Task: inverse folding
């Protein structure tokens, strides 16, 4: 199977995983990216079995609506059983790097609200130690240089993502060269830098389940 087929397989596995729990009141949190897009397309096949979705980006909201799925504001949602999203890297503890698509802040917010975070990824995303993938950090525009200096102080090499503005009107610094042995600690440390909105480490709220697409089929990992 190629990478696209693996993404479709994990997307379908996520639909199969959540389907038994859905009812007419269910709200599903939906992530951003190519794997999440496969999930949206698969979810459309069962759109009569749940109420609505909450989107982690404008792009995801648009794709959901194009399938006739109702998209709600997060503030209007009392409870959310599942959040389903991809990742750029996962370790064995289901700590993640996310934000390759720049939607990390909204993704982190929706993941925080959901009872269960189901991560979907092909096996290329599984690593022993996080950090080969540059860590995205969302930054308030006027703080870009200040935050970049602080990130250098933490041993990283921040690179300003060119021609990119987040859905929240901010910038992204992609931080290279970090070998992240303490994901929870680093997540907290970076978030304490003034001007940082959030960073792409999902360790304080990791995934609960990882559906990993492999040549041998979809494997289910849980914490
Ligand atoms: C977007 C994300 C995505 O989940 C992550 O970049 C993975 O994307 P893809 O499924 O396209 O590989 O965090 O902000």
Result:
């Amino acid at each position: 199977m190629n990478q696209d087929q693996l993404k479709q397989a994990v997307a379908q596995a996520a639909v199969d995983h959540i389907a038994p729990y859905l009812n007419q009141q269910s709200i599903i949190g939906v992530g951003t990216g190519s794997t999440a897009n496969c999930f949206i397309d698969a979810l459309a096949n069962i759109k009569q079995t749940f109420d609505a979705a909450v989107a982690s980006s404008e792009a995801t909201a648009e794709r959901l609506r194009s399938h006739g799925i109702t998209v709600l504001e997060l503030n209007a949602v009392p409870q959310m059983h599942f959040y389903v999203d991809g990742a750029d890297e996962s370790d064995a503890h289901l700590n993640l790097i996310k934000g390759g698509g720049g939607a990390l802040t909204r993704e982190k917010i929706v993941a925080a609200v959901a009872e269960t975070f189901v991560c979907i990824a092909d096996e290329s995303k599984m690593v022993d130690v996080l950090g080969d993938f540059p860590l995205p950090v969302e930054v308030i525009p006027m703080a870009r240089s200040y935050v970049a200096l602080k990130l250098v102080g933490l041993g990283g090499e921040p690179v300003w993502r060119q021609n990119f503005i987040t859905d929240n009107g901010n910038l992204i610094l992609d931080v290279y060269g970090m070998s992240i042995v303490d994901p929870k600690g680093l997540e907290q440390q970076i978030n304490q830098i003034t001007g940082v909105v959030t960073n792409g480490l999902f360790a304080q709220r990791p995934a609960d389940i990882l559906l990993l697409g492999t040549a041998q089929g979809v494997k289910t990992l849980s914490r």
Remarks:
- Residues 31-36, 85-88, 98-104, 107 surround ribulose-5-phosphate (CB under 6 Å).
